[in-house]
């Protein structure tokens, strides 16, 4: 797909994507969007049949498709914004969720940034958050459809005065004069795709130089501005990260959402884990990173580090905080003898340690009356649902079982979250 070219005009029965989207912005299109709002999947066919008697079939299909996307978007953007915004399937998949974008926008605002060039803006998730923080935004993407959606979203949320959307190759945009540059390269694209935007494609890209645009170009662009934030894949090899930047991994309720390279913040080169919604941040300069913790016997407590902590290679820092060590040299579970509350890991009190044996686990759970079983695993090939089917938990109590390795041996640890711990 060549995003630089506008979609074909199409026909009245089957207009191109850009024409179909433009039709949604007309009074008739907006009326249809209101009519289909809240439509359940099972009601779509009957509603579509009725609406096609008085409206073009293509417009009815576009409205119903947009309503499906809005329903999916609630998880990222919240019900209020999702009901007013516009989406494409790929744009929604690749967009930054509001909480994460707001965190980044707040940080840029705290640095005194008043204008940002948002390169590879997609449908505008980050641009909207920046504008809500009072920052003027140039939002750039090469896809005509994506730009139309981003422009409509800024208008829908009352932010059009702060967001200029420009259709262009990001590699050709002059960012001089902006207080910061934000680059969100496409990391899902088919082979042979060009550069400069976040249009179609759904193949995950692992090589940073296969980003669109490549990481090396994005880093160069970042260094031209007083401040910059460059979004990268959370699983990027640490050796691919420039040595002089602050790298932040962001999670929301334990689920890692993204990683960002920060330029110009005045902070030393470091690794940072930021946990949302609390905002707790664990940051360690590169020259103070601790070596891997020692492996030790299972203690009374097991600590499950937050995903951002693991990605940032800060498990050793958590182990230091709780006075613990690792269960296994290759597993990111920390064990300790005493409880030490920390926002960077969830603590569990361990009651039992067993070699991996399904029959023994089933007997123990039956003896304890465990009917609600949470299964967590690291270093085990067993699937949680498969284990639940085999042990058939039944009873009024709850427990957590960890399928892992202890000093290399497959092991089951049974316990429960420490009261008051936050996930």
TrEMBL record:
All copies of domain THUMP-like, residue ranges: 345-416
Residue span, Methyltransferase domain: 116-175
Name of this protein: Uncharacterized protein
Pfam annotation, one family: Thump_like
One term of GO molecular function: methyltransferase activity
InterPro entries: Methyltransf_25 (IPR041698), SAM-dependent_MTases_sf (IPR029063), Thump-like (IPR041497)
């Amino acid at each position: 797909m060549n995003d630089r070219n506008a979609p074909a005009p199409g026909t009245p029965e089957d207009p191109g994507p850009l024409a179909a989207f433009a039709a949604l912005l007309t009074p008739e299109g907006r009326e249809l969007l209101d009519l289909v709002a809240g439509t359940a999947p099972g009601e779509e066919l009957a509603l579509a049949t009725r609406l096609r008697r008085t409206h073009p079939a293509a417009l009815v299909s576009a409205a119903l498709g947009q309503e499906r996307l809005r329903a999916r978007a609630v998880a990222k953007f919240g019900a209020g914004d999702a009901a007013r915004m516009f989406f494409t399937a790929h744009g929604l998949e690749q967009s930054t969720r509001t909480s994460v974008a707001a965190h980044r926008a707040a940080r840029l605002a705290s640095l005194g940034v008043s204008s940002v060039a948002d390169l590879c803006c997609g449908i505008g998730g980050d641009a909207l958050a920046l504008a809500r923080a009072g920052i003027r935004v140039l939002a750039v993407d090469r896809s005509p459809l994506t730009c139309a959606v981003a422009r409509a979203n800024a208008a829908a949320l009352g932010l059009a005065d702060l967001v200029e959307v420009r259709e262009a190759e990001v590699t050709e945009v002059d960012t001089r004069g902006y207080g910061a540059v934000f680059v969100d390269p496409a990391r899902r694209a088919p082979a042979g795709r060009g550069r400069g935007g976040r249009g179609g494609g759904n193949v995950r890209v692992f090589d940073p130089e296969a980003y669109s645009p490549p990481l090396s170009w994005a880093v160069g662009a970042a260094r031209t501005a007083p401040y910059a934030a460059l979004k990268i894949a959370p699983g990027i090899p640490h050796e691919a990260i420039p040595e002089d930047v602050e790298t932040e991994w962001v999670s929301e309720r334990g689920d890692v959402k993204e990683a960002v390279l920060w330029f110009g913040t005045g902070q030393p080169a470091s690794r940072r884990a930021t946990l949302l919604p609390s905002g707790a941040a664990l940051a360690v300069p590169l020259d103070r990173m601790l070596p891997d913790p020692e492996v030790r016997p299972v203690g009374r407590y097991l600590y499950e580090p937050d995903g951002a902590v693991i990605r940032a290679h800060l498990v050793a820092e958590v182990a230091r905080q709780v006075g613990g060590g690792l269960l296994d040299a290759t597993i990111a579970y920390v064990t300790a003898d005493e409880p030490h509350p920390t926002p960077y890991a969830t603590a569990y009190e361990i009651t039992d340690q067993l070699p991996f044996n399904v029959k023994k686990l089933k007997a123990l759970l039956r003896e304890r009356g465990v009917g609600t079983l949470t299964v967590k695993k690291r270093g085990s090939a067993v699937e949680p649902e498969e284990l639940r089917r085999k042990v058939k938990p039944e009873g009024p109590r709850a427990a957590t079982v960890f399928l892992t390795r202890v000093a290399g041996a497959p092991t089951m640890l049974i316990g429960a979250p420490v009261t008051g711990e936050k996930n």
